[in-house]
Amino acid sequence: MIEKIQRRFALTRPGAVNLVKACVSCTISYLVIAMSIGILYFFTCDLIGIFRTGTGMPEYGIYAVQCAVVVILIFAAHYVQYNMTFFNTYTESARLRISVAERLRKFPLRFFSRRDLSDLTTTILSDVTGMEQALSHFIPEFAGSVISTALLSIGMFFFDVKMAAAAVWCVPVSFLLVFLAKKKLSQAGKKDRKIQLIRTEKIQEGLESVKDLKAGRYMESYIKEVDDAIDRCEKSQIVTELTNALFVVSSQLILKLGIATVVIFGVKYLISGEISLEIFMLFLIVASRLYDPLNATLQNLAAIISCDPKIDRLNEINEYPLQEGKDRMEPDGYDIQFENVTFSYEKGKPVLKNVSFTAKQNEITALIGGSGGGKTTCASLAARFYEPDAGRITVGGVDISTVDPEVLLSDFSIVFQDVVLFNASIMENIRIGKKNATDEEVMRAAQMAFCDEFVQEMPDGYQTVIGENGSRLSGGQRQRISIARAMLKDAPMILLDEASASLDVESETYVQQALSKLIEGKTVIMIAHRMRTVAKASHLIVLEDGQIAEEGTPEELLKQDGIYKRMTDLQHAAGQWKI
Ligand SMILES: Nc1ncnc2c1ncn2[C@@H]1O[C@H](COP(=O)(O)OP(=O)(O)OP(=O)(O)O)[C@@H](O)[C@H]1O
């Protein structure tokens, strides 16, 4: 049962156990409150007796004690309920966020390429927050009021079957109405969520590309698009609320009819002598109390139903297969070998077809070819960012699909064009390469990567904070920081996206010198765009349309008079152009 609850509400196992406890404590709370009905009933019976006989007095003392006991019990039950719901909920939502983040860490990139960033951020932040409310209020209160009402209803049948039927007929009818509306409520919730996502994406897109928007004078049309997205979102939220309200209010009205039927049938049975005045009073008291928790419950039921899309998304993350493997890798050297590797991002559209090559240790293997040929994909597969559809990739004879991705990545240094920097000091940004490196080691790596000169000129040297994604640095400086990280890591395999393509001559010279030091004695797979860089490589692989079109040393390929020769000639000609 715990597993079912876990899956139904996308919880961790302790969360599911705690949810059961919260439901039990809510039920007890409601039952304790219902005890006051008993006191009121006996007090009313006493009064009726006194009015009938015209003698005696109710025993106020006993009733006062009973009331005091019930009040204490209500406080105690609420205290337990509070701890079981709120305290456990916040612990669970922290656990959920950590578990989602932990799982995301172990997902292949394929998962992320199918989801956009705002969708994921929403899942981690707002879906979990939405579930917080469901766990602390909706679900326990729903379970508590349904169970306590069911018990009270059963109890009422022991007193009088006909009156009990007059009191409780409306309960299943109003629940049925909300359940019948489940599909509509769920659809409205899903649609609303999609529209909210579009709004968030639009705003995020604008914030990320504010420079381009201003430069291209698109700001006005962008603002209009955002306005439209916000308007659509507002309308959709109103429709969702109205759908919700329509079904909930109708069910609550049906529930209220219960009091009317108790009065109508009660008076009828009282006059015909089928029930006593005491029983009539009992049902009036119970009916006045019975529907209050249920009113809130109907609201809760609608809220639980509208949580379904959140639960689906969390479950998608909980059930997506993780990339796992051995936590040790003992390769025989660091040759990277592709054996008949086929890979596709989308089913049926392979971007690598039967690719086989070996990137040897102590050599630079350059991947070249036209745009979209599959160079970046090859490099990503080597680091197990994705899993091949067929074939295998080995490092020193070890199939990388059997190794934990984090263990594998600890043997890779990756220097790509898009350098990711954090809003922290330069020291910390370089230290990412080796978490436990001393300041001296960081500075040595920075010197080797030609960072030292520009770092010393900064106001706080290595302690200068470089802004979000290194916004205070130039392109060449960012790349040298990324090379310094790789130097510090000193991993035996290097993936290199020709990192100096967009730099000015001076920066490029620095970056090239830094790279030459970095790659000494390593297995290097380089994605190369310019034939000048490639001339230094030991082994060239020309990828065209996901297949190896040519392979060999630069000299061999020049002789072949094929794609490589053509690319070299074209770039040489481009170098001669004058404006
Ligand atoms: N995340 C992705 N999802 C779907 N298709 C992708 C993805 N990344 C790349 N592709 C497609 O896979 C093919 C190979 O892309 P890849 O980036 O490996 O080529 P490339 O040779 O590195 O190109 P370039 O030199 O332009 O960087 C292209 O058709 C590209 O559109």
Automatic annotation (TrEMBL):
It is found in: Cell membrane. GO terms for molecular function: ABC-type transporter activity; ATP binding; ATP hydrolysis activity; ATPase-coupled lipid transmembrane transporter activity. The chain crosses the membrane at residues 20-43, 63-80, 138-158, 164-181, 245-265. Residues 336-570 form the ABC transporter domain. InterPro entries: AAA+_ATPase, ABC1_TM_dom, ABC1_TM_sf, ABC_transporter-like_ATP-bd, ABC_transporter-like_CS, P-loop_NTPase, Type_1_exporter. Pfam families: ABC_membrane, ABC_tran. GO terms for cellular component: plasma membrane. Keywords: ATP-binding, Membrane, Nucleotide-binding, Transmembrane, Transmembrane helix. Residues 31-306 form the ABC transmembrane type-1 domain. It is a multi-pass membrane protein. This is ABC transporter ATP-binding protein.
